[in-house]
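ingest -> fold -> write
write: protein_1
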Amino acid sequence: MYESFYGMTHTPFTRDVPADALYESDAMADALGRLAYVADRQLFAVVTADAGCGKSTLIRKFSESLPKDQYIFLYLSDSKLTPRWFYKGLLDQLGIESKFYRGDSKRQLQKEVEILRGVHGLKVVCVLDEAHLLEKETIEEFRFLLNYRFDSMSPMALVLVGQSELWDEKLRLKRYAAVRQRIDINCVLPHLDRPETEKYVKSHLTYAGVTEQELFSRRALDEIYRLSSGIPRLINRVCEKCLMYGVQQSLRIIDDKDVLFVSEHEMLDGGDLS
C-alpha cells in the first residue's frame, strides 16, 4: 500500500529482505568474521542476543557466505530436540536414514562426516537455533559429540544460537562446566545504538529504492530509537506502521509527532512493542 505512494521498488521492513541487502552493524560484521573462523577450523561456538536483535539475520548471512563447494551447512530449530532427534535431523539433511538407537545414529553421523571430509573435501557446519530452549540432556550430548578421537579433532563446526538466557541461565551453571570448557568462540549481538539505528533504517529504505528523499526526519529517528531500544525487529514494526500512517495522512516526511501518534494509537496495548 505504501510502496507506490513513496515510490518504492521493494518492501523495506520485512523478513524477506535478501541477506546481502540487510544492514550489517560492526557487531554483526565481527560475529560473521568469528563464525567464518569457526567454520574453517571446525570449532564450537555460541551466539546469544536478546529477542529481535539479529540472530536470524546473522545465520542467513553466515549461511550465504559459506562457499558451497567447501562446506555442507546443516540447520536445526526444535525446542523439543532430544539427542536421538538431533542426530536424526542431521542425517535426514544429509539424505541418510538414521538408525533407531542414539549411539548407532551418532556413529552414522561421524562416519558420514569423515566421508565428506576425507573423500569429498567438504567441511560440515551445523547451526542449532533456539538453543536456549534445549534440555540438559541434549546440551550435554554436544560434549560427547565433540569429544571425538580423544579430543584431537572435532567432526564438525557446531554453532548454538539462542536468546541471552542460553548463556546467562544455562551455560554459566556449574552443571554445564564440561560443555562450557569446550566452547571456542562466544559471540553476543548487542542492541543497535542511535547512529546504527539511523543507518539501519536508511539501509532498508535504500534497498526499497528510496535514495533521493528523507522519509524520516532526524527527530523521528530519535523517537524510533527510543521506542525500539535499538532492537531491529522493533525498528521494523515501528517504521512499517509509520509508513502506513504516512500514506493515510499523505505525509511525504514523517516527523517525531507522527511516530508518537503511531506508537500510542497503532501499536498493541498503547504502544507496547514487546
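write: protein_2
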Amino acid sequence: MTRSQLAALIEAQGGAASGESVVDAERKSTWDGDTKPAPINVDDVEYTKGKGKLSDAEVSAAIESAMDKTGITPEARPQFKAVLEFMADKESGDNADAVNLYDTNAIGPTQVDGAPSQSSRGTWQTIPSTFAAHHAAGTSNNIYDPEASAGAAINYIKDKYEVGADGSGLERFAASRRSNGYTGY
C-alpha cells in the first residue's frame, strides 16, 4: 500500500486526529514503544523537504517526541532538551530543510533533493549514513523530518559520545559543543 493510499484510508476512517498529519498518525500507529535504535539501510533514507523554518514550539515538539522514542529518562529531559535546542539553532538555524553543501561531507552522487549524497541535512544536520545507522524506532525514514532528525541525533550522541539516557556524560558533550562559540558533532 502506498503512503497516499494509506493516507486516504486513515482519513476515510477518521484515523488522524484533528490537526495531526497523516504521516504523524501513521507513525504513532506503528511505533511499538521500543527505544533502542532501529537502523535502516541508507538506501531507504527519504529526502522530502517541506517544513522549512520551524517555530520554537515545533522544535520543542520534535525534541519531546524524539526523547520519548529514544528512552531519555524524565530527570535528563530538561538537560537534553536544552542541548538539542542549542544544536538545532547552531546546526540549521531551526530549518528542517537545511542542507550543508560546503563542508567535507558534501560529496557523492546527487540525490533527489539536489544535494550530494553525504551532505548534512535536516534540523540536526546528520549525514544520511549517520541518520540511517542511528535511526530512532517509530520515526519516519525522512532525513528532513524534525522528529526523525532529532531521534537520530540523540542516538548518535548517545553512541559516539557515550552519553547515557539518564544524562550521564551530557554536560561534557554540551561543553565541547559550546567551545569557541560552537563545535559541530
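write: annotation protein_2
The first strand starts at residue 99 and ends at 100.
The radius of gyration is 16 Å.
pipeline exit 0
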